[in-house]
Specification:
Number of helices: 9
Number of strands: 20
Strand content: 25-35%
Strand order of the largest sheet: 16-15-14-17-18-20-19
Largest sheet: 7 strands, mixed
Helix content: 25-40%
Oligomer: single chain
Structural class: alpha/beta
Radius of gyration: 33 Å
Length: about 400
Amino acid sequence: MPVAGFGPRLAAFLQRGLRTVTPLARGALAAAVVAGVAWALFGWQELGAAALVLLIALLLAVIFVLGRPAYRVEVAVASARVVVGEQAVGELRIHSAGSRPSGAGLVELPVGHATASFAVPRLAPGSEHDELFTIPTQRRAVLTLGPVRSVRQDPLGLLRRQLDWTRPEPIFVHPRTVRLANDSTGLLRDLEGLTTREISNDDVAFHALRGYEPGDDLRRVHWRSTARTNQLMIRQFEETRRAQLVIVVSTNPADYADDEELELGISIAASLAVSAVLDGKEAAVVARDTVIAAGPPARMLGALSALEPAATAEPFADRARVVAADLPGASVVALITGSVTPPPQLRLAALRLPPTAHSFAVRAAAAEELGRQAIGELSIATVPALRDLALAVRVVTAV
């Protein structure tokens, strides 16, 4: 028998064994040792009997956790992406893969911070046991489903042995969103993009004419000028940038009256971003230490589901510096925060944005009424509920 590698295998075996020992078993073992020592020193028969009973209980517990069930376990979820308030429905399928009947047991399915338990009956070889389950979703989150584990333990709970059968999988609980009209995100005004100083031979913003050079595309010839000057003249264009909506959303609980208001703010940001992407426009979301770049709506919603409240002393206006530094091509910027943020902070944030960007602000304020105010050139909408978002944004982005 080779000695090499025996040490690591023994260490792994002992580590797995120690994981089965519960705090109750440690207490029982300590009590048995103390009772045994006291019996040996003072001859108290009662303490000796107590030590013996505890040791027998521990030995019997070992028998209960021995053995390994021959399972093949599958977990199927109808959809790994749901909206807050919907239920994620799934099925747990346990197949007996051994040549002998498997005994009854217990299977646990962790879901986020909760754990569901299922009693598995005695299974004949090749038979299956199915369990349907539902996951209520009251809060936006990314939940971890699994791993499914079988559990063996003694009646007293001294030892507990767990075996994992599946890998953990994410369940995305998306924020609630509403679909906004194509003209409600503030991008209609620059549908053709913003012109730059770069000259191009192919774009939509006409700039000037120049003489023909070898290799030029004859489709760009301006025939009227060619006829007038008796020389081939080529159109030149100014390059344009595609319109980009940037949403700056606060995740600082201090900017909101309560947690529900913070969730409303994130739902507002998600609605703006998804509506812009579905309309074929670019959108990005800026939160504290996070920039969610433009992408498919499902990916953006998944990233928004993972946003955690972040308490910080940084004023909301400082978030605008990220836009100016990292997203200078933004053409429209939406500032999203709660009812506690002072309006002057929103005005200061707007002043720190790129000078070419049009900006507006939305306050998530569940205790206030739908309304609009202006500070300088910045329009601020107050939105008490998500259903009011479309009207509020249409008003503050009106040309």
